[in-house]
Amino acid sequence: MHDHIHLLITVESGTTIERAVQFIKGGFAFRAGKEFGAKAPFWQKGFSEVRILDADRFEKAAGYIRNNPVAAHLILDAREFPHSSAYPGFELDPPPRWLTHDKRSA
User: Fold this and answer.
1) pTM > 0.70
2) Average pLDDT per run of 10 along the chain, which is 106 residues long?
3) What distance in Å separates the CA atoms of residue 59 and residue 23, rounded to the nearest whole number?
């Protein structure tokens, strides 16, 4: 998206979501400054979070993220947006095992 980002991340035990987002935003801002001359502040303060507690919610969140450029009328098919996990060639990690519908594999 041109004015925001959606992430679906798993945070390790002992790491807060706030710390994980700080690393992502800080690392990106550093690289953007170094490579493109972007000036601070790069990100707005704060963020929103939704906790994913089951496989159905995970699938809904992933679908929402994939289709966000379509909903914003930037493209007709999510696979057309080059900055999206739906774009051909991106390899995604599987969902955490505890979120799978098949609990035998957990």
Assistant:
1) yes
2) 84 90 91 88 87 90 93 93 88 82 53
3) 25
